[in-house]
Write a structure and sequence with these properties.
By secondary structure, the chain is mainly alpha-helical. The protein is 64% helix and 3% strand. The protein is built from 10 helices and 2 strands. The protein has helices at 10-23, 36-43, 47-60, 92-113, 116-131, 136-154, 157-168, 173-179, 185-203, 207-227; strands at 63-66, 70-73. The protein has a two-stranded antiparallel sheet. InterPro entries: GntR_C, TF_FadR/GntR_C, Tscrpt_reg_HTH_GntR, WH-like_DNA-bd_sf, WH_DNA-bd_sf. It comes from Allorhizobium borbori.
């Protein structure tokens, strides 16, 4: 039934293959899909790739994800207009990887150039974020402001623009649905503490520590993203 895929936009290929099986009736309405681990083995892809594909199909209306129970075929798909990324759009795990690689370098350089004024700006953002942990939209706004403020320290408009643009790729119904499986006051609290570690390393003028703190933060964000969704949330690929 399922065919192993080549490594290009894998989550979209997985979603397309499942979508075809649903539309042709090979996967029946009301049926339960195989477990996430089994799907990843059949497709020959990672479990995060399967997770992304399933949420694409949930947003489109083809699937219903019941946490703790499984993933079921909807009886009457009702796609949401503009809910899914356009063709060749980057997946969330690709974006997190790109951010890890680039923002770690940005934090390293920021530690060399930080001024008391730039640190004060970061402190203000962190204070607002801490006060808004129970308000998801405010926490998200402060999270973006924190990362762009670090890029601002360098004074390179291209880096600043990149940081904002890549962060904004998550501002779609698809990403919002994906984030709904793991974001909340607890995860924002963890992110805040990680932000403080980045801030302290930059304020101390320690480039290597700043780079490592940012790398650790985005690695942990990816881990939270990965472990929060699926039938086996405590395991990793």
């Amino acid at each position: 039934m399922f065919v192993a895929l080549e490594p290009r936009r894998l989550y979209r290929q997985v979603a397309e293959q499942i979508r075809i099986l649903i539309e042709t009736g090979e996967l029946k309405a009301g049926a339960k899909l195989p477990a996430e681990r089994e799907l990843s083995e059949r497709f020959g892809v990672s479990r995060p790739t399967v997770r992304e594909a399933l949420i694409v199909l949930e947003v489109e209306g083809y699937l219903q994800i019941r946490m703790g129970s499984g993933v079921y075929i909807n009886r009457k798909p009702q796609p949401m207009t503009d809910a899914v990324p356009v063709d060749d759009s980057d997946g969330p795990f690709e974006i997190l990887e790109a951010r890890l690689l680039i923002e770690s370098g940005i934090a390293e350089e920021a530690a060399r150039r930080a001024t008391p004024a730039s640190i004060a700006r970061i402190d203000d953002i962190l204070a607002r974020m801490e006060a808004g942990l129970e308000k998801p939209q405010l926490a998200l706004t402060c999270d973006r402001a924190f990362h762009t403020a670090i890029a601002d320290i360098i004074g390179n408009s291209a880096l600043n623009r990149f940081t904002g643009l890549i962060y904004d790729r998550r501002m779609t119904p698809y990403f919002e649905k994906l984030a709904s499986y793991f974001e909340g006051p607890h995860t924002w609290r963890l992110a805040l503490e990680e932000h403080k570690a980045i801030r302290d390393a930059i304020a101390a003028g320690n480039p290597s520590a700043a780079r490592e703190a940012m790398r650790q933060h985005l690695t942990l964000a990816q881990k939270r993203f990965s472990e929060s969704f699926g039938e086996e949330p405590s395991r990793e690929d």
